[in-house]
Design a protein that fits this description.
This protein is of the alpha/beta class. It has nine helices and 16 strands. The longest helix has 19 residues.
Amino acid sequence: MSSLYQIINDQFYKKFSWIILLTPLSLLFFIGIQIRKYFYSIGFFKSIKLTRPIIVIGNITLGGTGKTSLIQKIIEELIKKKIYAGVISRGYGATVKHPLEVLKNSRVEDVGDEPLLLKKKYDIPIFVGKDKVSVGQFLINQYPHVQLILSDDGLQHYKLQRDLEICIIDGQRGFGNNLLLPSGPLREPKSRLKKCDLIVLNEKNENFDFDYLMAYKNPNYLLNRNNQKIKFTELKDRDILIMSAIGNPNRLIKFFRSFGFDFKYKFFNDHYFFKQEDFDGLEKKLIVMTEKDIVKCENISHDNIWYLPVSVEIDEGFINEISKLIK
């Protein structure tokens, strides 16, 4: 049985029908966007500049564009260049409201899956909270030597001034039915792209204009929570179940089908926090997840959970654009 999230996504990105009835609400949403932008333009709503360069990495559609993978790539390249960066995030689904530092032993329910994943992989300051301006200021106060701040999502968070805007477009799904929320996946009109500094496409598609192409590097193996490795050649005749709670699980399905695997799948709402009962009765299954999923399974009792490690490649010129912000 499909979840409400999957049903709505099918309406957004596949054949839509009943959701067209929500277009009056999309019109109201559009009016709200324009009023909010106007208030910022005349200074009625204040936009605040922090004392460090701010790079916003986001999108104009709902999740599933590969934002987390791109942020990881940026962090890795900045580390190579010895640029000390920090990350601020809303921490989607997290309970925290005030600025909070993400630690490696933080609870995923408190800080969100993506920030915790980044903290476990990289030794850089990461803070979460509802108000990105307050979160950014808190990070700078705690880590005054930070040279650059990456904002995980936030194209629509106009209160925070930014030095560089990076927008990711899903080359596979595009803009779906091209409608604004709630009748479509768009957070803002497509005209918003003209004001972004860099457009990154996550899968080659000649129908979209972009500055840089992000290419996925998928390995031929899986890892488990103890960093043990299993090669794809060892998966033959295994009872595989793909479990995931990400914005676009179809990319995962497409990848595994390309290897000819026989598997079943079970998807949850994006950012869903897994519970033990989700795994009860699946003891004989080899469960495959994404890296963002498995960070939410540390307290799950199951001996056969694996994840697909994913990294991306992007032209060196993209990183150089970011490095220019450091004086």
